[in-house]
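Propose amino acids for all 218 sites.
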């Protein structure tokens, strides 16, 4: 089993202190968006564990960056990557980290002109790309996706009725195709109310705000 520390949206102040070491036994940190990048770097450094994340709608625009042999570029020009140092950005990708296969899809429904916001059609196109990547990986080695990491939840599955917090309909189809053990998301703040886990087929859908520890077979 792999133990995951999943975080999203709300900083846990105690994790800035030595209390972070209560999670020393985890194998991996995953972040579902809208957290300060220095906070994520702190967690990864303090626990000395790999970090996989997807951006939220309040995060910086991380599109267009390339890393070749440790050199970050954008439009062919060397730049400093604004994301968390050493982390793996899983947005629109399928990555293998700590013995787990993780598919990622960041961002929220479009409600203004900010970064990491998508129309339903745009996100559906991105979801199809993730599905194709996962399919190619499965054909190559027979392994499926263990965790689908998103910022937003699926439509009518833990989202809210107001415009900025509606989920994506296309995520239902993506879960059906990938059949991950867990779908982990943020974006929907609990505001003091319990956010129960939900199920889409055999997949457990979990709002991880502000933090959850999970075990996944690998």
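Proposal:
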């Amino acid at each position: 089993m792999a133990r995951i520390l999943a975080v999203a949206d709300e900083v846990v102040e105690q994790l800035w202190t030595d209390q972070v070491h209560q999670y020393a036994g985890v194998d991996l940190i995953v972040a579902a968006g809208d957290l300060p990048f220095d906070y994520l770097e702190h967690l990864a450094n303090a626990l000395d564990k790999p970090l996989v994340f997807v951006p939220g709608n309040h995060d910086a625009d991380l599109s267009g960056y390339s890393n070749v042999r440790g050199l970050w570029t954008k439009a062919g020009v060397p730049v400093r990557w604004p994301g968390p140092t050493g982390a793996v950005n899983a947005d629109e990708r399928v990555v293998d980290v700590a013995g787990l296969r993780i598919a990622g899809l960041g961002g929220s429904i479009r409600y203004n002109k900010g970064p990491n916001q998508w129309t339903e059609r745009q996100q559906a196109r991105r979801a199809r790309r993730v599905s194709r990547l996962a399919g190619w990986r499965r054909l190559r080695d027979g392994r499926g996706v263990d965790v689908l990491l998103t910022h937003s939840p699926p439509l009518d599955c833990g989202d809210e009725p107001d415009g900025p917090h509606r989920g994506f309909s296309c995520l239902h189809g993506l879960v059906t195709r990938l059949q991950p053990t867990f779908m982990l998301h943020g974006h929907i703040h609990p505001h003091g109310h319990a956010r129960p886990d939900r199920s889409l087929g055999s997949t457990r859908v979990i709002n991880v705000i502000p933090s959850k520890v999970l075990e996944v077979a690998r």
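Residues 9 and 35 are 5 Å apart (CA to CA). The mean pLDDT is 94.
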